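Weekly structure sync, notes
Attendees: PL (lead), two postdocs, one rotation student
Agenda item 3: pending single-chain targets
PL asked that the sequence for the first pending target be pasted directly into the notes so everyone works from the same version. It is reproduced below exactly as submitted, 157 residues in total.
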Amino acid sequence: MSEILHSPFSILHSPNSTIATAESCTGGRIASLITAAPGASAYFKGGIVAYSNEAKISCLGVDPATIEKHGAVSTQVTEQMARGAQRVFGADYAVAVSGIAGPDGGTPGKPVGTVCITIATPSDTHSERLLLPHDRAGNIEAAANHALALLQRMMAR
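Predicted structure, written out during the meeting:
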């Protein structure tokens, strides 16, 4: 399993940048890692755990047609989740994650361990799709750590 990023924002592109989260399969783990760092209140605006499709739609403004067409575990949905978190919290950056942590819920097209991550920046979005090989706890931890590392890279650009 990957190492936990205890201080993920040591290379902030701008010390005035703010961050929000929109999490599904990680269940708030990303927000927990961010707020574990001293001084997080200076840049973390908040997070939404939108585990159900209804929460993704009502809290983050995800288009139901996007979920219907691509499924909740898709970069199309995480892009809308990230933009929704930016809007809801008025944040510069947002990270969104949706996936199948396991042990159940996988399909041949989206097996257990499939995770989609999007980082929304002030000007664009960057998405990745991963296939993680761990058990449920390991997939959640690896997804959270990967999302934070990706956020850190996008903020450093």
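Discussion points:
- DSSP finds five helices and five strands in the chain.
- The first strand starts at residue 19 and ends at 23.
Action: rotation student to compare against the earlier draft before next sync.
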